[in-house]
Amino acid sequence: MTQKVINGVVFYDMPAFYKKLKERGMDTVGIPELYKTFIGLGLVEKVGNDKTYYLTKKAMAMNATYKGKLFHTEPCGEWGIKSFPMLSEHMLESFITKYGNKNSVKSIVQNKNIDWNNIPPHMIQKFRRCAKWEYKNIHADSLYHQYLKSDKWQNIRMNAGDNSDNRCSKCGSVDYIQIHHLTYDHVFEEQLYPEDLVVLCRKCHEKVHGIAS
Q1: Are the C-beta atoms of 84 and 76 separated by less than 8 Å?
Q2: What DSSP character marks residue 121?
Q3: CA 49, CA 52: separation in Å to the nearest integer?
């Protein structure tokens, strides 16, 4: 766990950043989720397969605008990641301001104003627990139902279908094509785990779920 002071600005590697969030009362799930959040925000990207991450052009432009007070490019890693840019105290405050008051799934669902592309890391596991229960008890106002209507899911669904030629993986039908989750372990982040999705026709999908036609 590392933190450094550079030109009067404190920078943290991810373990230190995570510790600071916990100290400030944020119910963060874990360091891996934080990595995914910054990658999902388009601020960090992986080049090659060596688990080394770099700032994106977007992040470098932001860093230049703020005179290097957001990121430090000396990489530090953890959790199997070789290197990851350090994050400043300004990023910490921004993160807490944006996500710190969102402490329950219930309050977010009631607001019906979920940014599905940027689910806070301290909420993602709570969202998933809801989804695993709701897929058998789905209703119009459920969290999972809202997600299925979102542009994010429609794009994921379309990509999954295109990758399988919109053909049922069980019977080969091209009629009434649907997307089935093999697991709900990565729901809301399926774009990162395409292997969790399989294309099925409606009839085969109902059979998988034990629904009588």
Answers
A1: yes
A2: H
A3: 8
